[in-house]
Amino acid sequence: MSRFKKGGKREMPGITSSSLSDIVFMLLFFFMVTTQMRETENKVKVVTPEASEVVKLDRKDLNCYINIGSPTLMYQAQYGNEPRIQLNDSFRTTDDIRDFIAAERDSKSEKDRSLMTVSIRADQDVRMGIVTDVKQELRRCSALKISYTARKPAK
Amino acid sequence: MGSNFGLSRQLPPMPTPDQEKQDQQINRRNLIQVRINSSDKIYAGGDAIDISMLKDKVKDFLTNPTNDPNLSEKEVKEIEGYSKGTYAVSKGVISLQNDRGTSYRAYIAVQNELVKAVNEIRDDFSMREYGKKYLQLEEDQQKVVKACIPQLISEAEPKDVGARRK
């Protein structure tokens, strides 16, 4: 089997770098395509509960989001870990919901205003007290179309 | 992040002071009360019940196959676009009550069961009438089904039921 024996030292061939750009571009495009911009930073931890009967909300631009949950680790020193409400980018209280809804209504076009849906994204471990407060406030602002954000259970 | 799935609900408008007494008009037998207390125990129609039983109980209440006088009434209504013209629509309303101490997880689980009950009744009806599941029907057929089997879930005014758990 002398055929397989390699005799003496062999030079390592140099690695061709011609395919390097291909790989880099491929990765670049891959991430460009798959990345979604996060619209707002999450300051509260929200793990939505599971529900099997969820329906997809078809028009994303008509939604506005109210996040309810305990502040993330970063903010716990400042805000504690009691569940709080996050509107857009900051911690708010139920009193601010009125202004928030008014601002959201203004940002939609005239004919879409009645279709606006408020998505309540609450953590599964929050108590209903805070959610009820939010709901009552929404009723006062007559933002009556709501949706409880939930995720499909893994099969 | 991009999760856009949810359970849609319509909130009742805030009652004006002179309007408060009106919503008592629903007949007692047409109302099933589903209560969740602060330790996430579920009561339907007065009895403690497990969540796995809730769907069937609600389905029974709404369809009332044996015409039990304790379950919901039916009213024969004309349905637009329905081939048989009229259908005995159930007058049953589900009233959902929760406590401030109820966990959101339990609340959504119950909401989900209620929606599932209605969806299953709709599916049964669609299979009988059109031989297809509700979601696979044409839009105007869905409208008919919706009119025949309305989803009436009322979220009652908040009330403190039992002791609050911190």
Question: What this model shows, in words?
Answer:
The complex is a heterodimer of chains A (155) and B (166). With 155 residues, chain A is of the alpha/beta class. Chain A contains four helices and six strands, in the order H-E-E-H-E-E-H-E-H-E. Chain A is elongated and about 90 Å long. Helices cover 30% and strands 22% of the residues of chain B. The longest helix of chain B is centred in the C-terminal third of the chain and has 27 residues, at 104-130. In chain B, the strands form two sheets. In chain B, strands 4-3-2-7-8 form a five-stranded mixed beta sheet, covered by helices on one side. Chain B has a two-stranded antiparallel ribbon with strand order 5-6. Chain B is an alpha/beta fold and 166 residues long. Chain B has helices at residues 51-63, 104-130, 139-148; strands at 5-10, 31-36, 42-44, 47-49, 74-78, 86-90, 93-98, 153-155. In chain B, a hairpin with a 7-residue loop joins strand 5 (74-78) and strand 6 (86-90). Mean pLDDT of chain B is 78; it is low at 160-166. In chain B, 29% of the residues are buried. The chains are: A alpha/beta (155), B alpha/beta (166). Chain A binds chain B through residues 36, 38, 48-57, 60, 63, 117, 119, 122-129, 131-132, 135-136, 138-140, 142, 144-152, and chain B through 1-14, 98-105, 107-109, 111-112, 115-116, 119, 155, 158.
Strand content of chain A: 15-25%
Largest interface: A-B, 41 and 32 residues
Give the spatial strand order of the biggest sheet of chain A: 4-3-2-5-6
Uncertain stretches of chain A: none
Give the structural class of chain B.
alpha/beta
Low-confidence stretches of chain B: 160-166
Estimate the mean pLDDT confidence of chain B. 78
Counting DSSP H or I runs of 4 or more residues, the number of helices of chain B is 3
What is the overall silhouette of chain B?
Answer: globular
How many beta-strand segments of chain B? 8
Radius of gyration of chain A: 26 Å
Order of helices and strands of chain A: HEEHEEHEHE
